[in-house]
Specification:
Elements (H helix, E strand, L loop, with lengths): L1 H19 L10 E6 L1 H8 L4 H11 L5 E6 L5 H11 L7 E5 L2 H5 L4 H17 L3 E5 L11 H19 L3 E3 L1 H15 L18 H14 L4 H5 L2 H6 L1 E4 L3 E4 H13 L4 H14 L1
Parallel strand pairs: 1-2, 1-3, 3-4, 4-5
Antiparallel strand pairs: 6-7
Length: 280
């Protein structure tokens, strides 16, 4: 009986260890391309940008990979297609994330033209042996009922469709973002802000960048425990408002709670504080 007990205990321990250590897909020496627009550009240029958060998470978990940042402000899917070879494929990555759709809707790229460009991007990347991770486009201002967000539904539905058809990995950022916005409004009924996961309605705040990083890391096979190991590093990273106000991610989170309690978002709350100081 004693031997049976220890055999069972050993088996449980092995199962528990296996559940806590997921198989991270990214390996030492792998290259990850990040193709996108200004959101992707800031993901690399901000210390707390999602690209930098992902790369730090890999390093913290013992994986030395290489990033290929390829975000250009204002880019739409047809422009990304034109520079795919130059900016991504020539560097021979094993993986590529595709983040597009906001500018396509905002600046009037037709759904048909969007579909054509996305399909060619995916097919060219796959032909080069690259595993593609398709990110649904985040919200265009944080109200799902606006005209642009309603228009965006068809574009994101196509991304979900092509991810399934082409055996890509889908990372559904739009759904994640809507859940974050809804959760803040539920927790703070007085909240009337418009910048929860963004700092201007479109470009991501630290909360938004962490949202994207977490979603990508989970898609790469990270467990919650492995992601949690990154909190200390992520919280020390800096975020700035137009190079005027600098806050650590931890400070931004704290300020968010204060702003939400006051019924507004961080950018509006900061403006209110500054105006109150000027009027004194």
């Amino acid at each position: 009986m004693k031997h049976i007990f220890f055999s069972i205990l050993f088996s449980i321990t092995l199962l528990s260890s296996a559940s806590l250590s997921a198989e991270i897909i990214i390996k030492n020496g792998d290259k990850i391309g990040f193709l996108g627009d200004s959101i992707t550009h800031q993901g690399n240029t901000f210390s707390c940008g999602y690209i930098n958060l992902v790369m730090s998470a890999l390093k913290i978990n013992g994986i030395n990979a290489q990033k290929i940042p390829a975000g250009i402000g204002g880019n739409k899917a047809p422009q990304m297609l034109k520079r795919l070879d130059r900016d991504i494929l020539k560097q021979k990555p094993q993986y590529m994330t595709l983040n597009t759709g906001v500018n396509d809707v905002y600046y009037g790229v037709s759904l048909d033209a969007y579909k054509k460009s996305i399909t060619q991007i995916v097919e060219k990347a796959q032909a080069a042996g690259v595993k593609v991770y398709i990110l649904t486009a985040t919200m265009i201002h944080e109200d799902p009922m606006t005209q642009n967000n309603q228009k965006l539904i068809a574009y994101n539905d196509f991304l979900r469709q092509i991810a399934k058809e082409k055996n890509c990995v889908l990372v559904d950022l739009n759904t994640e973002m809507q859940e974050i916005v809804a959760s803040v409004k539920k927790k703070y009924p007085q909240y009337k802000g418009k910048c929860t996961a963004t700092f201007d309605g479109v470009h991501l705040s630290p909360i938004g960048h962490i949202m994207v990083a977490r979603a990508l890391l989970k898609a790469f096979g990270f467990t919650e425990e492995q992601i949690a190991k990154c909190d200390a590093d992520w919280n020390k990273r800096m975020f700035h408002f137009r190079n005027l106000i600098y806050l650590t991610v931890h400070e931004y989170k704290q300020l968010s709670e204060i702003a939400y309690t006051a019924g507004t978002d961080v950018p509006t709350y900061i403006k209110r504080l500054i105006r109150n100081e000027i009027r004194k």
